[in-house]
Specification:
Transcription Regulator spoIIAA; 2 domains; 13 helices; 72% helix
């Protein structure tokens, strides 16, 4: 049974002295509550905790409550003799018991809006600079690994190829198949007015091979694998595993980033070829169904509409998009700090940034190919 706490009183008025001894914990607290409440809150009193052996949050709350009652009456209860650990506990209980100040209401005005836009612009430029610096660190590490191939983690590379490539085949195939169906349906519907339904084959072939196959694949990989990279590395940051790697003289870029980026560079072109095939398959099936075209006629028209160059125009974008997705996913993962909330926020941010960069670079490729006449 817990040792009872006791409160001894001596003196009166400004000379009131209280001595608390024993164990002031939940099991021994109740007999003292009424005794503390009867203390006269006048003048100045002293509470000596030198002989107090143990204290929990309930006991600290009782002392804090009594001190607050004295203060509300204009009196002073001075606490002396507390051991460091007990004093720390009372300070924490006292801080927790005080109401938190509400933040001032946010003011909405044109000036506040301009300030927010300015802060967001500065943040974007700072992050762009950090991303460029991260790109430089990746290139430096790639050169180091190329000069010493034994530093490459091939087991991790193969594992990531399976995750980002092989496991993504069902969703990428289904999505591009359906997009091919939609393209064919809309193409036939629009070209029928001009008697040019047969040119739906050209529309499906060129759209899928040049743009839709690689673009949809990149967006799916960014949402599926880029977010996974951020979440995985971000969780390692929260658990201080990345710091532990640095302590062991392991380079996180070499151990965590390069296998993921190389896996994407290998897997995304293969996924693009598969997406092209599934997109043309879906578009071809719908075209043959809508305009009574045989598969042989469809393939003959497709052969007249597209060339090997058309296929490579889409495929050449794949390694670039793969590098961008991997770089952004790992960059945001290494920026995670402190909490699971940070992991979720930066995972979402990495997907948005990766898709944005993919579309920007796709537009740049289109301008370049147009300029070169490809």
């Amino acid at each position: 049974m817990a040792q009872q706490a006791s409160l001894k009183k001596s003196g009166e008025g400004d000379g009131l002295r209280l001595e608390l001894s024993g164990r002031l914990v939940t099991a021994t607290l109740m007999p003292l509550v009424a005794e503390f409440d009867r203390l006269p809150a006048r003048g100045r009193a002293t509470l000596d905790l030198t002989r107090l052996e143990a204290l929990d949050t309930a006991g600290a709350w009782l002392i804090e409550r009594t001190e607050a009652r004295f203060a509300a009456a204009g009196a002073k209860l001075e606490i002396v003799g507390a051991k460091p650990a007990l004093a720390k506990l009372m300070a924490r209980v006292g801080k927790a018991g005080k109401p938190q100040a509400l933040p001032p209401p946010e003011r909405y005005s044109p000036l506040v809006f301009v300030a927010k836009v300015g802060a967001a612009t500065i943040s974007v430029f700072q992050q762009a600079g950090d991303l460029i610096a991260f790109f430089g660190a990746i290139v430096t590490t790639i050169v180091r690994v190329v000069l010493r191939p034994s530093r490459m983690r091939f087991t991790s590379l193969v594992s990531h190829i399976e995750q980002v490539g092989l496991n993504a085949l069902p969703i990428v195939g289904l999505l591009t198949l359906l997009i091919g169906v939609v393209l064919a349906y809309q193409g036939v519907d629009q070209l029928r007015a001009y008697g040019g339904e047969i040119f739906t084959v050209n529309l499906v072939g060129i759209s899928v091979l040049r743009e839709m196959g690689i673009l949809l694949t990149a967006i799916m990989v960014a949402g599926r694998s880029g977010s996974a990279f951020t979440a995985q590395i971000g969780t390692m940051q929260v658990n201080e595993e990345v710091d532990a790697m640095r302590t062991l003289a392991l380079d996180p870029i070499e151990a965590l980033v390069l296998p993921r980026i190389f896996a994407l560079i290998i897997a995304v072109p293969l996924l693009t070829v598969f997406a092209d095939f599934m997109g043309i398959l879906g578009g071809g099936a719908m075209t043959c169904l809508l305009i009574d075209l045989s598969p042989a006629q469809f393939l003959r028209q497709l052969n007249n509409a597209v060339t090997v160059k058309t296929f490579f125009v889409g495929l050449i974008k794949a390694p670039v998009f793969a590098f961008l997705i991997g770089m952004v996913g790992c960059f945001e993962g290494l920026r995670v700090k402190g909490s699971a909330e940070s992991v979720g926020r930066l995972t979402t941010q990495s997907v948005v940034e990766a898709i944005f960069l993919v579309i920007v670079f796709d537009a740049l490729f289109s301008i370049l190919f147009s300029y070169l006449g490809i």
